[in-house]
Write a structure and sequence with these properties.
- It is a single chain.
- With 480 residues, the chain is mostly helical.
- The chain has a domain of 208 residues.
- It contains 20 helices and no strands.
- The longest helix is centred in the middle third of the chain and has 32 residues.
- The protein is globular and about 70 Å long.
Amino acid sequence: MSAVGYFDILKLAMPETIVALAALAVLFIDLGIMRPAEGKFRRMIAALVTGTSCLVAIFWMHQVQQETAPGFLSGLLVVDPLTQWVKQGVLVLTLFTAWVSIDSTFTDHTGEYFALLLLATVGMMFLVSAENLLMIFISLELLSLSLYILTAFNKRNLRSAEAALKYFLFGGMAAAFTLFGLSLLYGLTGSIELRPIAAALKGKGLDPALAAAIVMTVIGFGFKIAAVPFHLWAPDAYEGAPTPSAALIASGSKVASFFILGKVMMLGFAGAEGNGAWRAFASGWVPLLAVIAVFSMLLGNLAAIAQSNVKRLLAYSAIAHGGYALLAVLTDNLQGVAALVYYVVTYALTVLGAFGVVSVVEERAGEARFSDFAGLSRRAPLLSFCMMIFMLSLAGIPPLAGFFGKFYVFTAAVNAQPKKLGLLWLVVFAIAMSAVSLYYYLQVLKQIYVAESSTVSPVIKTSAPLLAGIVLVAIKAAGF
């Protein structure tokens, strides 16, 4: 390839390059210059470098409007308006995650933590841009390895190590299933690009090898989105991981994972959809994902009711929200893709804000139990109001952003087969489960606004940057 060709590739991958260089820069600054400084100051500088790199990458994508043709670089790097938009969403989530980390004291290894945060972001960005099986797997592994380490970053807490070990073991098994599924696809089609794979599978029917490839691929991606029955790692990881790490797992990681799941299913397995209509199931990936969506919504919402820890509640809530998001994937059309992107980005911002409030409470109380939130409205009125917005948005209460996210997903599902209303049964079930979810979200608000604290607790003073970040996320979650 000529030098001009390499320059063009570098130009296309410039946002990822900026973030990768920032990971090296934050390591150099913290280890080489800032090591003797006070911990919070080091975290502020690292967060500033991280946030600046995210903003520069977003600015680059806005200023340099680029688009690649189908098949460019064998699908290794796809650049179009949709992928650029999703990558910008991921960068915004990383920026807020870095901001939430400023007041966290779980580690003295500031440079390493923020470098891993940025490397995970690079993995998410490449994952969003991939239409090549090899690139998808490599990006997934870069993202996963970074998240495993971030989960175990609190060396003072044994639960952090336990959570990371469970996350790693489940993740290793899921990676094996993913690799086997993708290798079967290559064996069936002779290609590792999604579009040529779909063309090669067209008209062949659902033979046993293709069925095995679909099942194994769904198992691998089901782990990343914490869908039932591949969710067992999520509650422990959310509870044991440092709160900012859990926030990244719940936000940016989910956005990238759902987007690539939709891309693999809709592009790579086009022609093997089957049918998920009530009492008219036909073999394919649609009925498989429909069943997974039902059990995710059911188990996630019912298990969340029994929780007494807010982080575990958010974990089971994430499982339920994964079920809602799968409805958009099942539509298998452009309206579904738009609804999916809006829903997962809205959910990610909202849950990130909720974790920001949890991090403040956890730093003061050492835990995130319901009792630790008792009387929070009297100790931190603004934080409590923000938490109310986050909880009600996650429940889908109008006119908050979470309501519109669910509305777009449910509308897309109903419109997928307008004459037969094939997915209407799923929409009705999802609405019923949304009503169930309101109960446990209100339980959190009851502790904040109604319950009395068992001890005399002082007013919570939050640093200005963190408070400003949480308020800004709350404004977005409110739909403004």
